[in-house]
Amino acid sequence: MPELRKDPVVGRWVIVASERAQRPNDYRATAPALRNGPCAFCEGHEEATPNEILAIRPGGTRPNAKGWQARVVPNKFPALRIEGGLDKRGNGIYDLMNGVGAHEVVIEAPQHLLSITELPVSGVRNVLWLFRERMADLKRDQRFAYAMVFKNQGEAAGASMEHSHSQILVTPIVPLLVEEEMRGAKQFYDFRDRCIFCDIVEQESRLQERLVLDEKNFVAIAPFASRFAFETWILPRTHLGRFEEIPDTLLTELAQVLRTTLRRIEQALASPAYNMVLHSTPFSSGNAPWYHWHIEIIPRVTRVAGFEWGSGFYINTVPPEDAAKFLREVRDA
Amino acid sequence: MPELRKDPVVGRWVIVASERAQRPNDYRATAPALRNGPCAFCEGHEEATPNEILAIRPGGTRPNAKGWQARVVPNKFPALRIEGGLDKRGNGIYDLMNGVGAHEVVIEAPQHLLSITELPVSGVRNVLWLFRERMADLKRDQRFAYAMVFKNQGEAAGASMEHSHSQILVTPIVPLLVEEEMRGAKQFYDFRDRCIFCDIVEQESRLQERLVLDEKNFVAIAPFASRFAFETWILPRTHLGRFEEIPDTLLTELAQVLRTTLRRIEQALASPAYNMVLHSTPFSSGNAPWYHWHIEIIPRVTRVAGFEWGSGFYINTVPPEDAAKFLREVRDA
């Protein structure tokens, strides 16, 4: 059983999941080789994954067979286990609990596509729809506090399979960075009675210099204090705290905005590795009018060096205004 | 002039330093090629670096000439500038200030060594002595709040020069992670009237299972909630908040402990890239009996994937007990 351990100083939780690991001796070897298709995620190889949890099957085909457009399966090497209680406990000054949670994979296409942007808007919408449905379902489990929906694109971003996919990791605690966002946003709200993310959307729409995309219901921006070169966030204009409550009417536009944003990053930076993370109000939070779901995209074009790790302090050599201008001016291929 | 910008939600400061950058168009190319020696850091090439700030010259040779054992020079491409005022200001909901600070390079050897462990203990001691002297000097500047002393070893850890060196980045604000450590440690102190790092040293010395080295005045441990495989911390046994106050009598033992720890990591993991960061009480803090300086070493043997970035939540596949055992059993070559 994996363990969740808390850093006694800063309160950061870490999953210690040795079952996923190579043995220490194996650490001399590094990067896992990505396999070329067809792979375990391809249509016709459904037996290579654990049984599907949810899938889009327009023809009404049966589970774990051909005929799907996108499917969600349990991660074959889960970082957390779905069964059992948390068994929270101490060990001297340390705190830990069982590594209970869920770890699912969203396979985004039946073909061996290397990027979600190779899908049409309707295919991207399928993926977003699956995110929403899985979050709404997993939220019902009282043990779970947060669902991290994320994508590692490319080997340099941590992907171990090249077939386009995302992951959902559901944890019994709220991750530190989300807790900090909640805390900061609440401070702002307590003082001004406004959501800070709404203020960001308003200010960026007005100033325009950091806008990447300016659509009816969404904006894509280079955030003012971007940690990374070409970091890009997508935010809904209308306040909404929880991604799992996004109405159907917005899913198609979000799919189009996400697809266009990622295509521009791919074209501008020669299809870089990137990470994408959905931020949403924790399951375990009550009504939190200060928080606003959004998507963060981090191209991996520069290395993160030691002092960033050791300090949580970043050097970004591309001003967000320059990055936004560059991405605005990309001609769609 | 670089800018310091504050993330309006979590309060994280970022250096936006476009002068160091390639232009956006250049971001298609990635990794800088490390040059083979002899290089600008080698003895006899002193004119290739800015004028030295401090050096160890046992023969009393003149500055910026041959005859040194280790030297400190300004970074040729500084992330922050030494001149000028902070000019703190707002921009709508955002906060920023001028990128004022210091950015120095500690060249660890006159020969083109690729690792600090190729130096004898006395050479490592020289480096630690320079860290201490520079911190004590920089602290006198009232504009500065924190000195980050760090080392990027190897290209994968962000090094752009292969000649063994460290960096000192002095900032007008306290980095978020250090502030969190200070806050967490103070909470513990307020409740228990003890330093949590002293408690960690005590518990780890007693349990032994996460001990890597157990010396008279220092321990090296795999921390209980290690974020990374083979993460290793070095802590002094006796409470001391500020590295710049370390007495001469401890420097030689620390040099030996650091050298042995790094050598074991190099031997166990085939000389991996790693980052090393010194954590010390901020210049700007008053007396803070809850904080305890220490060194964190993070081998870069696994990739950090998207959800770690997006959440501050880590998966570590090597339990620290296994990592410590493995490093304890390395036979010194």
Written description of the protein model:
The structure is a homodimer of 333-residue chains. With 333 residues, chain A is an alpha+beta fold. Chain A folds into two domains: 3-173, 2-Layer Sandwich (HIT family, subunit A); 177-328, HIT family, subunit A, CATH 3.30.428. Helices cover 25% and strands 22% of the residues of chain A. In chain A, the strands form two sheets. Chain A has a ten-stranded antiparallel β-sheet with strand order 3-4-7-9-8-13-14-12-11-10, with helices on both faces. Chain A has a four-stranded antiparallel β-sheet with strand order 2-1-6-5, with no helix packed on it. In chain A, strand 5 (89-91) and strand 6 form a beta hairpin. In chain A, helix 1 (121-138) crosses helix 4. The radius of gyration of chain A is 20 Å and the shape is globular. Chain A starts with a strand and ends in a 5-residue tail after the last helix. Residues 21-33 of chain A have low confidence and may be disordered.
Helix/strand layout:
2 copies of one chain form a homodimer.
Chain A: E1 3-6, E2 13-16, E3 54-56, E4 70-74, E5 89-91, E6 94-98, E7 102-107, H1 121-138, E8 146-153, E9 165-171, H2 176-192, H3 196-207, E10 211-214, E11 218-221, E12 232-236, H4 248-269, E13 274-279, E14 294-299, H5 306-311, E15 314-316, H6 320-328
Antiparallel strand pairs in A: 1-2, 1-6, 3-4, 4-7, 5-6, 7-9, 8-9, 8-13, 10-11, 11-12, 12-14, 13-14
Helix pairs in contact in A: 1-4
